[in-house]
UniProtKB/TrEMBL annotation:
Organism encoding this protein: Callipepla squamata (Scaled quail)
Lineage of producing organism: Eukaryota, Metazoa, Chordata, Craniata, Vertebrata
Coiled-coil intervals: none
Annotated protein name in UniProt: DJ-1/PfpI domain-containing protein
Length: 225
């Protein structure tokens, strides 16, 4: 029997939704690992819509569940319907949509609020001692919901120019969590909390290195499941 894994999306597109390559990498590695996957997203309006050609805000409204359905090839459910008893693990790909739609980190940093269904999903998997996988900016969700947990978003200093958002690590530490420095090819396992994280696009790295790093996260999640 394959492990049953829920994947939670935040829209479709790096600047206002889930990062498409990360979502795809998670799904490819889960497929290779023999997992049975179901995809979810909150049925809420996006915080904003970004024209990805111009990189500027677009004057329109979009729904996170409807946009995420693009990545799920239409096979998706409202996050409010997720039942933890039907799954062995949950994974959150990254992208600005996590920081805009699943929580308000993009605006409020460490003072952010977390969407109630995202919070209750994370709490439910954690209480059931089922693993939680997160990549890119998604580890801030764990940092906010589980003070004291260990996560990585890559490096805490931008020494080599590959980690332009290194200050995210300090914000995580200010929340009372332990930031573990890891390179893009690695993931960190917080064994006590069963939280597995990898930095993905927080690192300016070639796409295949990000893909492989996400692979280590998915494999660790499946091992713990
Ligand atoms: C968080 O809240 C504190 C206290 O209200 C404030 O000083 C700080 O600037 C806020 N941080 C962010 C990133 O909004
Ligand atoms: C998550 O939900 C719990 C239980 O309702 C609540 O105590 C906690 O403050 C929430 N956490 C966040 C970050 O919203």
């Amino acid at each position: 029997m394959g492990k049953r894994v829920a994947v939670v999306l935040a829209g479709c597109g790096v600047f206002d939704g889930s990062e498409i390559h990360e979502a795809s990498a998670v799904l490819v590695h889960l497929s290779r690992g023999g997992a049975e996957v179901k995809i979810f997203a909150p049925n809420i309006e996006q915080r904003d819509v970004v024209n990805h050609l111009k990189g500027s805000p677009a004057d329109e409204k979009r729904n996170v569940l409807v946009e995420s359905a693009r990545l799920a090839r239409g096979n998706i459910q409202d996050l409010a319907e997720l039942k933890v008893s039907e799954f062995d693990a949950v994974i959150f790909p990254g992208g600005f949509g996590v920081a805009k739609n699943l929580c308000s980190w993009a605006v409020d940093g460490k003072n952010c609020t977390v969407n109630e269904h995202v919070n209750s999903t994370l709490q439910a998997f954690h209480s059931a001692k089922k693993p939680i996988g997160l990549c890119c900016i998604s580890p801030v969700l764990a940092a906010k919901v589980f003070p004291g947990c260990e996560v990585t978003v890559g490096q805490d200093k931008n020494a080599d120019g590959r980690f332009p958002d290194a200050e995210t690590a300090s914000a995580i530490a200010e929340l009372g969590c332990k930031h573990i420095c890891k390179d893009v090819s690695e993931s960190h396992v917080d064994k006590g909390n069963k939280i597995v994280t990898t930095c993905a696009f927080m690192c300016k790295a070639p796409l295949h290195e990000i893909f492989d790093g996400i692979g280590t996260m998915v494999q660790e999640v499946l091992k713990l499941a």
